[in-house]
Amino acid sequence: MAMATENILERTAGKKNYQKLAALKNQELIKFVEKYASHCNPDKVFICDDSPADLQYLRKKAIQNGEEKKLATPGHTIHFDSEKDQARAKGDTAVLVPAGFQLSEAIRTLECEAAREEVHEILKGMMEGREMFVIFGCLGPNNSRFSIPAVQLSDSAYVAHNEIMLFRQGYQEFKKLKDPKRFFKFVHSQGELENGVTKSLDKRRIYMDVDPQYETVYSTNNQYGGNSLGFKKHAMRLAIARANREGSWLCEHMFIMGVHGPKSRITYFSGAYPSACGKTSTAMVKGETIVGDDIAYLRVVDGELRVVNVEKGMFGIIGGVNSKDDPVIFEALTSQGEVIFSNVLIDPDNQARWGGDGRPMPPKGLNYAGEWTLDKVDAEGKQKPMSHPNARYTIQISTLKNRDSKADDPAGVPLGGVIYGGRDSDTSVPVQQAFDWSHGILTMAATLESETTFATIGKTGERTFNPMSNIDFLSIPLAEYIRDDLKIVKNARKPPAIFAVNYFLRKEGKFITSMDDKRVWLKWMDLRVSGEVDAIKTPTGFIPKYDDLKNLFNQVLGAEYAKDKYSEQFTIRIPQLLDKIQRIYEVYKKVPNAPKELFKALEEQRRRLEELRERSGDYVRPDDI
Ligand code: SPV
Ligand code: MN
Fold first, then answer.
1. Domains, the chain, ranges and CATH?
2. What global pTM score does this model have?
3. What whole-number distance in Å separates Cα of residue 140 and Cα of residue 408?
4. Dihedral, CA atoms, 136, 140, 141, 145, nearest 10 degrees?
5. pLDDT digit string (tens) for 579-619?
6. Closest ligand to residue 226's CA
7. Residue of minimum CA distance from atom 3 in ligand 1
8. Is 48 annotated in the active site?
9. How many angstroms separate the alpha carbon of residue 232 from the centre of ligand 2?
10. Could you read off the pLDDT of 426-442 as tens digits, one per residue?
11. Which residues have CB less than 5 Å away from ligand 2 (the ion)?
């Protein structure tokens, strides 16, 4: 049997390629690759050993297959997805669970046996006429106890190209596996194509098989990165489930950044913000350094909570990136060097262009919908955008000027603070600190909400519940996930401080903080972590003192900071805060097995707010607390 196995692979991969796999001496791995090489039936199998020549082969294939096109700037390429496959396909995505097993309401689940059968039926013969790429990744820094080895099989060179840019290379890691059976596995096929994009979206499936015997994600009939890239959000579901089983680490939807304080001190923060709440722009803020912008593994090492960036690249939203608001990314996107653009516009000079890029619009171009011209309008007479709202760029953090010097440190960085960033127009103050770890997890992380679009200026958006900004990626019951977060610090000497930020407070429709203010909030957080400034205790957390912010506005932004502005921004808005507690209470009443501590923390917060209201009224300025 073993002989037959090797022969099939050897035939499709060729002797030289096969040797690269055989050299890893891992029967589990060979069995896996062989299984899908025979089930999906590609014409060819390419094993990537991460040598410069092999990495170059993938870049070249993406062009040769027509999956990417070269743009005028050397290193730049563009890829288009189907019009209906440009964002994560929640309705086609499911976590596979044993019969009768429940996750939380927001997480789609399917019975594992039936779902495995269904997706394997779709995968059968799916790579005929194609080449299957076998890519090894290391989720986390190389040579690190945090990291998880992974293998991706895909018939898309675009997927392979993204994986090698976004994640550290993993071939060498497979030579050092402690347990040869423990690695994450991903199988992807873009399916039949029409004009270069996936045709049968009705057969799009993204199934997360989190069972420890499998730890595999099957993804069919899609191309968009959030649906196709195994190492990114698919691995996240596997990691959350594995972390839950092991109980000693966490996988979070977080950026990691270094905030530079007095005397060359660097305090590291991680931050969880739902999409479009300022996550990447915070990690990229002027004057500070970036470790990562999307996914983090956390673990206590020698009594200290430390964190690594799971990735080495960024798959970022390109809309609105311009030289004023995001100068570092803008420069990376407009200079020579490896960039994959997706779903942007190709202008007549064969350059990438996108909505909000701050440059005069070209008269015409080509985008995912075909010919685009400046005068093109939609049914309502509105100008058609150059690029899709979820158009993205793929770059490597190593090309960014603000990369933190410890970005690839196998030991990670020590976590000084964790930030939860919501979007609300009328409830929370711009920045506050939790009383302690539990208070932060229960009242800032587990209660995170974000407002969707504002239909009319001044009107409150619709609030969506997004605990830890991770609701889309949970693969375990929400209650368990909260408990994992609560207990992660039990062996930490000094748990990180927890903060909540809100960049979106409004008055009469207008924002009452500005984009740059977050630079001040970050510096204040650094001072709090180091115990260098005092704060005012409010019912929901500690808020900054006016004099400290006044100094920081001056030092950081060279700006005045008026007392009136402070008083308005940091007013405790009791009716809205009580409404939020009620909303969240109702949500958790329906969450099976929700932690009792959560209800207790909400009750206590409610009581503190009511007491303050008795003393000082509905809206309480910091001076009146
Ligand atoms: C997000 O939506 O949170 C992303 C992009 O980071 S995706 O890979 O689609 O998840
Ligand atoms: Mn993300």
1. 2-68+89-246 (3.40.449.10), 252-312+407-624 (3.90.228.20), 315-399 (2.170.8.10)
2. 0.96
3. 8
4. -100
5. 999 999 999 999 999 999 999 999 999 999 999 999 999 99
6. 1
7. 275
8. no
9. 9
10. 999 999 999 999 999 99
11. 294
